[in-house]
From TrEMBL:
Protein name: Phosphotransferase
GO BP: glucose metabolic process; glycolytic process; intracellular glucose homeostasis
Entry annotated with the keyword Membrane: yes
Organism: Boothiomyces macroporosus
Enzyme class: transferase
Family recorded in the similarity comment: Belongs to the hexokinase family.
Length: 517
């Protein structure tokens, strides 16, 4: 442990120190114009700079959201010019190696705190999964996977020799369901499971074992029992927080007359770790980069001080998305604005800087300000651009993948999808640069979390990290940017850390855990 922390410090070069000092001086001069730090270190917005209502309504640059809120902070320059705008954005969104190193060390200490006490920011929830698979497990199982954007019902066949076969059906959870009653949500799940079983010709006359992947912060009390601590990722259903989610689903299944027994309650990170370990026993860490972000890893029971002492190992669901340290995380005014308007302000700050649900929104907030400052689209935005969460993270992927000279696909996203009246090639270059900055920052922050976990468990010699989620899978260069950051943080040792794409881990893992339970 100590050895690797020292090593992290050791790789900071003189050049990085100079760069950091310059960066901090710039930040101090204009990065946080509308914040002040309280005595407790919490960054608070200064209210006078904001209008009362921040909800966008109109469709012109003059009276829409672009005219309403945080101004793009710029270095004092008499004449507005392109490079200075981009330079300002770079200053706020580029995370230096030394900054990343600080985050790593602080996250390690937060992981330790979470293992020590309940109710810490990073919850470090023991999963009750104490066995890892050895590839010989066999059988037929059902799995349910609620991630955040998608909900899947899976039929998983463990074939032994590390082989898994799976068929699944995917359903979308509507906004209405996400914000309605808990009972309706669980009834909907039961209905989907019923129709899936029927389509698969499964005999629900005899009891079918099922693993339930439920990717929200849950305090587990047994392998198949756990109460929801808080909703995230836009869910706010009534009557679920504080309740046993297995009970709720089991009740809905019973109402539908389905003879299915929920054997295990699983977080997607834990499922992903288990599924990958079925074929690669060096898998000690898993990460989700999808709607939200989270990580799980293998911990010695003896290190979980809040549990007293014990033997063996258990998988910990870190819930790292709720890493919230505002004095350490490189928060910008756009991050603060996104947070204030979210359904869970002051929570899941790390997640809001990294995951698929939020990256597009950060980009949108920046674009809206650039339009307001007259730096983009001749000052003309659009209704769509002014609407929160209408700039999907998947558009960032399209834009970053666009290497045509005229940035033709970027034009299509901006004009055809986002309804911007007209974009010049220069405009599109700026937009692409914003996507690059926000996407790269996310990848680097995620890598810092991985470096912190590898450091925490002292696996710098060999460790596979199984990564699942559409953001990691589809965002161009995301993995490479993470690897770059890991090399900056860990030096040559980073070569020992394998980042591997895990697909369908959350469903397969749930079945595996049900099998082992
Ligand atoms: P879940 O979190 O429900 O398990 P996913 O892993 O599919 O689901 O993640 C969904 C998230 O991934 C959404 O927030 C979406 O914006 C983002 N996403 C989907 N496709 C892409 C893409 N091509 N590029 C970047 N992000 C994407
Ligand atoms: Mg998922």
């Amino acid at each position: 442990m100590r050895k690797s922390e020292t090593f992290l410090f050791g790789v900071t070069t003189g050049i990085a120190v100079v760069a950091t000092v310059q960066y901090l001086v710039q930040l101090a001069s204009y990065a946080f114009p509308q914040q002040k730090t309280t005595s407790s270190g919490i960054i608070k917005p200064v209210p006078v700079r904001f209008k009362q209502s921040e909800e966008p309504v109109a469709d012109t640059a003059a009276n829409s959201e672009v005219g309403s809120s945080v101004t793009l902070s710029r270095p004092p320059s008499p004449k507005s010019s392109l490079p200075s705008v981009l330079e300002t954005l770079d200053n706020q969104l580029v995370v230096s190696s030394s900054k990343l190193q600080k985050i790593v060390l602080h996250m390690v200490s937060e992981f330790k705190k979470g293992l020590m006490n309940d109710n810490e920011n990073i919850a470090m929830l023991p999963s009750f999964v104490v066995n890892r698979p050895n590839g010989t497990e066999v059988g037929d199982y059902l799995a349910l996977d609620l991630g955040g954007s998608n909900f899947r019902v899976c039929r998983v066949t463990l074939e032994g020799f590390g082989n898994i076969r799976m068929t699944h059906a995917k359903y979308t959870v509507s906004n209405e369901l996400k914000t309605g009653s808990g009972e309706k949500l669980f009834d909907f799940f039961a209905e989907c499971i019923g129709s899936f079983c029927k389509n698969q010709g499964l005999d629900t006359g005899k009891s079918i074992p099922m693993g339930f992947t439920f990717s929200f912060p849950v305090e587990q009390t047994a392998i198949n029992k756990g109460t929801l601590m808080t909703w995230s990722k836009g869910f706010i259903c009534d009557g679920v927080v504080g309740q046993d989610v297995v009970d709720l689903l089991q009740r809905s299944l019973k109402k539908k007359g389905l003879n299915i027994e929920i054997k295990a309650l699983v977080n997607d990170t834990v499922g992903t770790l288990m599924a990958h370990a079925y074929s690669d026993p060096q898998t000690y860490i898993s990460v989700i980069l999808g709607t939200g972000t989270n990580a799980a890893y293998v911990e010695k029971v003896d290190n979980i001080r809040k549990w007293g002492t014990g033997n063996g190992e258990v998988i910990i669901n870190t819930e790292w998305g709720n890493y919230n340290e505002a004095t350490i995380l490189p928060l910008t005014p756009w991050d603060l604005k996104l947070d204030r308007r979210s359904s869970n302000p002051k929570h899941q700050i790390y997640e809001k800087m990294i995951s698929g649900m939020y990256l597009g929104e950060i980009v949108r907030l920046i674009l809206v300000e650039l339009v307001k400052a007259g730096e983009l689209f001749n000052g003309m935005g659009s209704q769509t651009l002014s609407t929160p969460y209408r700039f999907d993270t998947a558009y960032m992927s399209r834009i970053e993948r666009d290497h045509s000279l005229s940035l033709a696909d970027t034009k299509q996203v901006l004009e055809d999808v986002m309804g911007v009246p007209k974009s010049s090639v220069e405009d599109r270059r700026i937009v692409r640069h914003v996507c690059e900055l926000v996407g790269t920052r996310a990848a680097r922050l995620a890598a810092a979390g991985i470096a912190a976990l590898v450091t925490k468990i002292n696996r710098l010699d060999a460790c596979t990290v199984a990564i699942d989620g559409s953001l990691y899978e589809h965002y161009p260069h995301f993995g490479n940017r993470m690897r770059d950051a890991l090399r900056e943080l860990l030096g040559i040792t980073a070569e020992n850390i394998l980042l591997e794409q895990a697909r369908d881990g959350s469903g397969q893992g749930a079945a595996l855990i049900a099998a082992l339970a």
